[in-house]
Write a structure and sequence with these properties.
The complex is a heterotrimer of chains A (about 400), B (about 280) and C (about 280).
Chain A: H1 2-15, H2 35-42, E1 46-52, H3 56-74, E2 77-83, H4 86-98, E3 108-111, H5 113-121, H6 144-147, E4 148-149, E5 152-153, E6 158-165, E7 167-171, H7 182-191, H8 204-218, H9 230-248, H10 262-270, E8 276-279, H11 284-290, E9 298-301, E10 307-315, H12 323-334, H13 336-343, E11 351-352, H14 361-364, H15 378-383, E12 385-387, H16 391-406
Parallel strand pairs in A: 1-2, 1-3, 10-12
Antiparallel strand pairs in A: 3-10, 4-5, 6-10, 6-11, 7-8, 7-9
Helix pairs in contact in A: 2-12, 4-5, 8-9, 9-16
Chain B: H1 3-22, H2 25-32, E1 34-36, E2 46-47, H3 50-56, H4 61-93, H5 99-111, H6 114-127, H7 134-158, H8 163-170, H9 175-204, H10 207-213, H11 220-228, H12 233-257, H13 265-270, H14 272-275
Antiparallel strand pairs in B: 1-2
Helix pairs in contact in B: 2-12, 3-12, 4-7, 4-9, 4-11, 5-7, 6-10, 7-9, 7-10, 8-9, 9-12, 11-12
Chain C: H1 2-33, H2 48-55, H3 57-88, H4 94-105, H5 108-119, H6 124-131, H7 151-186, H8 191-220, H9 223-228, H10 236-244, H11 252-282
Helix pairs in contact in C: 1-11, 2-11, 3-7, 3-8, 4-7, 5-7, 7-8, 8-11, 10-11
Classes of the chains: A alpha/beta (about 400), B mainly alpha (about 280), C mainly alpha (about 280).
Chain lengths: ~400, ~280, ~280
């Protein structure tokens, strides 16, 4: 009897989910205080930054440089919350929005692409605020690669933090002539079975690979910059899946399983189980060679036809408890000094999002040009860029990969 | 088969089992102190203290996560014993009609994964403000531990005959005094075992903490899992060893200070037959 | 008189904890599995989620894999445990107590990580094979991690559960079985006859009881397959969790439906176990 009572109690609590709408509409109102006010309000507070935690170099950048600087300059205590996957943060916010939780635990989240788009559709992001930051003057907000995130309008709801470009990595001792096109890749894997693979979507880098395949087999980029068109998708996507299925039997483990994440793919490369790898960070290879983790014969290269490049951002959730602090932190992360430090190949090596031409000459010089055998020059990267497809195409592509490639 | 041969087989069998039990720990210890260890070397070519430094980093995550795990583990152990003991007394000491049903109910979370119920209750927890808190994590750990303490204590109380309490009562002791000065000391070893069990269960929890803690409550198994999903075996192994320590410690304590017979959880389960 | 009230009071704390947090959670899962998600405006109850789950091929793949992993782990653990108990019942001293109880206390994750480092294609086993000249490259070593037969997962479960079952069997052996066996020996029965006709029937209820526990536990366990399993198919609890993490909230009822199904299946095993334990008590 007691049990029945308890169960009914909890059922009614669970069922008491009134539509949350009214919880915190401040999300769409944006920031209207001056930055000086924000700085004052933020002093002495704590800011929770949630970001992907699987890369030690990024964690070190945040823990060893950003955190002490924030304390020193703004009196802000930064707490880094590692995420296994940014989608988990979005999921959490969706849950919180559902039950009308007005005060969450995340102040600032590192995000872009599908995660941002899904969040925006569900009204999860506070804003607009990003174009009002003092350091926004160094950002080219007119550029479509900044004001659109994987084709989705940003509208000041997230502040650009850095740039990523998709590169291929290989071991020059094991691979004489790295495959630069999809056909070459097919041939190479036939001759070298078991020494190439890609992370399973929806891993971020895995998604990028199948997106490159999409551009490669269709030979097109433009259609995927437009709104999602089911007819076009049904026409073009089978080519992608056919290619990936053809590739499958010569992959690592014959494609029966895929590395669960970018980190696992890197492990395979480290152990020389695969000879070709990939990454969104052009500086990764050099960094790992310098650390002694990758063989010295490691080199980076780009696929023909251009490789994906995107901007990554920082967003503030609708229920962020410390929006003032979050904006001050975002502004600092966008500052020239922080961006110079971030691009240091000995640390993270992430490319700056600032428009270098807008910076004073003496600061321009500080931005390190990539050095070393295992990396590529900025010019080479810039000359071979293609934009990301819109998130809607990618979400469908990933689902299709699950059904048509993974499950055979 | 003569006695000598039987003992020889016994010893060989024991040796094999020992090797197999110890085997997973070998690479853990080697990797924890490894500097460079490429395939196909059998031993690291360079040793290093990087793994240990990571563990002991001041202001590092490991210390905080370990303390969190300890705090939660100890509170869960205490709470689940306090909750489980009266249940054990009722189930072990008395017979009554609905007893089978109650035992079934209390036993359920041992066999039905608490993950299922926790996913179900997650939204409610968010609504009640329990998500992202240590209290919330504490509560879901209780779900996993109370059935065990209840069952173990049921077995303890089932074996008692109440003679001691009767004797105390005839000597003039009140029911509370009898409980405090006679029952408690007598069941103390069993209670300690139940508590240790509950601690170990809480200590080892991963997905429940991830789900309810929302990334805000960081425990040691979360660090280990995160490292194991990455590509640094040195850090992973160091964390694994630290994570395993309390388990070994608990075993040592149990074997040294408690009657060996009472650690026989196998008997505890089989002994359920005596209870219903 | 006060007896029944006293019992009710004694049981209250435990019943509250399990009733509210566990049963309440399951009830909530059932409600959500029926599609009742008022916060996103869904208030219609339907069996759509169950239909989708049970007719989609994914559930069947996952279910079969889960049964296979749980079944193989249980059978192997049990057979090894019986053998070990028979061989070791004479030397159950302090040392064997430690050796057998160690895996019971060590957390699953530690066992999983350690075993992975032994059986992976660049692990201890592979390096030994390379040292013996049996293999040259990692990929020549059999794939035991993230593989189709879930070998590393089963190995981890066997490592953890076999000692538990051994203890159960040992306890049963040291009871009545021992005396009966001595009687049989005096009557001239051979070793095999003693085992099959005397010992085994006496210890089998205990073995079955322990097997039921191991099966139900490995059926619903999450951590080890999440770490060591392959991309597809995954076991049921991992499938439920993946659905739960989906950004599309419409996947929520599906996740809950899988949870409810897992709960039903494991509850059946719980009931079987209790029935058996009750018979044990009478016998």
């Amino acid at each position: 009897m007691m049990v029945a009572l308890a169960a009914t109690l909890s059922m009614s609590v669970a069922a008491c989910g009134n539509a949350s709408g009214g919880a915190d509409d401040a999300g769409s109102q944006g920031e209207d205080r001056s930055f000086a006010e924000l700085e004052t309000e933020a002093r002495g507070t704590t800011v929770n930054l949630s970001l992907y935690g699987g890369d030690d170099a990024i964690n070190a950048y945040v823990d060893d440089y950003v955190t002490p600087e924030l304390k020193k300059r703004y009196g802000i205590a930064l707490e880094r919350t590692p995420l296994t996957d940014t989608a988990d943060a979005v999921n959490k916010l969706l849950n919180e929005k559902q039950v009308g939780k007005g005060k969450g635990t995340i102040d600032l989240v590192w995000i872009n692409g599908e995660n941002f788009a899904t969040g925006a559709e569900a009204d999860l992001w506070f804003g607009p605020w990003a174009e009002k930051l003092p350091n926004a003057k160094y950002v080219d907000w007119e550029s479509p690669s900044i004001n659109h995130d994987f084709g989705y309008p940003v509208e000041g709801r997230e502040a650009p933090w850095g740039k990523a470009q998709f590169v291929m990595i290989y071991d020059s001792e094991k691979v004489e002539d790295p495959p630069k096109s999809l056909d070459e890749l097919l041939d190479w894997t036939e001759e070298n079975p078991g020494h190439f693979t890609y992370p399973a979507p929806p891993d971020f880098t895995g998604n990028a690979f199948i997106e490159q395949v999409l551009y490669g087999v269709t030979g097109q980029v433009e259609p995927f910059q437009k709104s999602f068109d089911e007819k076009v998708f049904n026409q073009k996507s089978p080519e992608v899946y056919d290619f990936l299925n053809e590739l499958e039997s010569n992959l690592w483990r014959e494609g029966e399983t895929y590395p669960g994440s970018q980190a696992k793919l890197e492990e395979l490369y480290q152990n020389s189980e695969v000879y070709i790898s990939m990454s969104y960070n052009p500086q990764l290879a050099q960094r790992q060679v310098d650390k002694g983790l990758y063989p010295e014969s490691t080199r980076t290269y780009l696929l023909n036809g251009g490789t994906l490049n995107n901007t990554h951002y920082l967003a503030i959730p609708f229920n962020g408890p410390n929006k003032a602090g979050a904006q001050v932190v975002a502004n600092f992360l966008q500052s020239p000094e922080a961006q110079v430090e971030k691009q240091d190949p000995n640390g993270w090596g992430d490319l700056t999002t600032l428009d270098v031409d807008r910076l004073p000459k003496n600061i321009q010089k500080k931005f390190a040009e990539p050095e070393g055998e295992a990396t590529l020059s900025t010019r080479e990267l810039q000359e071979n860029r293609v934009p990301e497809a819109r998130s809607e195409w990618l979400l469908e592509l990933e689902d299709g990969w699950q059904e048509k490639v993974l499950k055979e | 088969m003569g006695k000598g041969a039987g003992t020889r087989w016994s010893n060989i069998g024991l040796l094999i089992v020992t090797v197999l039990v110890v085997l997973p720990f070998v690479p853990l210890f080697l990797w924890a102190f490894a500097g460079e260890w490429r395939f196909p070397d059998l031993l690291p070519t360079e040793w290093s203290s990087r793994g240990i430094s990571y563990l002991l980093e001041p202001g590092g995550r490991v210390l905080g996560a370990t303390l969190n795990s300890l705090l939660i583990g100890v509170s869960v152990a205490l709470a689940s014993v306090v909750v489980g003991m009266p249940a054990g007394m009722a189930l072990g000491g008395y017979e009554w009609r609905m007893k089978g049903a109650v035992i079934f109910f209390i036993l359920l979370p041992i066999l039905v994964p608490p993950l299922a119920s926790t996913m179900g209750i997650h939204l409610t927890f968010i609504r009640l403000g329990l998500a992202d808190t240590t209290l919330g994590v504490f509560l879901v750990h209780l779900v996993a531990t109370v059935p065990y303490t209840a069952i173990i204590l049921t077995s303890i109380f089932a074996e008692r005959t109440g003679e001691l309490e009767e004797a105390a009562r005839t000597l003039g002791a009140g029911p509370w005094q009898a409980f405090r000065y006679v029952t408690l000391p007598d069941v103390a070893p069993g209670v300690a075992v139940a508590g240790l069990f509950a601690f170990l269960i809480s200590w080892g929890q991963y997905i429940l903490t991830v789900l309810i803690g929302g990334g805000n409550v960081v425990t040691l198994p979360m660090l280990l899992f995160s490292a194991a999903s990455g590509n640094d075996p040195v850090v992973t192994s160091a964390l694994a060893i630290v994570f395993a320590l309390p388990a070994v410690l608990a075993l040592v304590i149990a074997l040294r200070y408690l009657k060996p017979g009472t650690l026989d959880e196998g008997r505890g389960f089989v002994g359920l037959g005596k209870v219903s | 008189m006060g007896g029944r009230i006293k019992i009710a009071l004694l049981l209250t704390p435990a019943l509250l904890v399990i009733g509210v947090l566990f049963a309440g959670g399951l009830v909530s899962a059932v409600v959500q599995s029926l599609g009742y998600l008022p916060a996103i405006g869904q208030t219609e109850i339907s069996l759509d989620a169950y239909r989708e789950v049970l007719t989609g091929g994914d559930f069947l793949d996952s279910f079969l894999l889960t049964v296979y992993v749980a079944g193989a782990s249980t059978i192997i653990s049990t057979i090894l445990a019986v053998l070990a108990a028979l061989v070791l019942r004479r030397s159950s001293g302090r040392f064997s107590a430690i050796v057998f109880q160690l895996p019971i206390t060590i957390p699953h994750l530690v066992a999983a990580v350690g075993i992975a480092l032994v059986v992976s294609q660049t692990g201890l086993g592979a390096r030994l094979a390379a040292a013996l000249g049996l293999i040259g490259e990692p990929q020549e070593f059999p794939a035991l991690l993230y593989d189709r037969y879930s070998v590393s997962i089963i190995l981890t479960y066997v490592w953890k559960e076999m000692p538990f079952v051994t203890l159960v069997v040992l306890a049963a052996l040291q009871g009545v079985a021992g005396e009966l066996e001595d009687v049989a020996r005096t009557l001239g029965a051979g070793a095999w006859q003693r085992f099959w006709y005397v010992v085994f029937p006496v210890i089998s209820p205990g073995i079955i009881a322990a097997s039921l526990i191991v099966f139900a536990f490995t059926f619903g366990a999450f951590e080890v397959p999440y770490l060591l399993g392959k991309t597809y198919p995954t076991i049921l609890p991992v499938m439920a969790y993946n659905e739960y993490r989906d950004i599309e909230l419409t996947a929520r009822p599906v996740a809950m439906a899988i949870n409810v199904l897992i709960a039903l299946i494991t509850a059946v095993f719980a009931a079987l176990y209790l029935r058996l334990a009750r018979d044990l008590g009478r016998g």
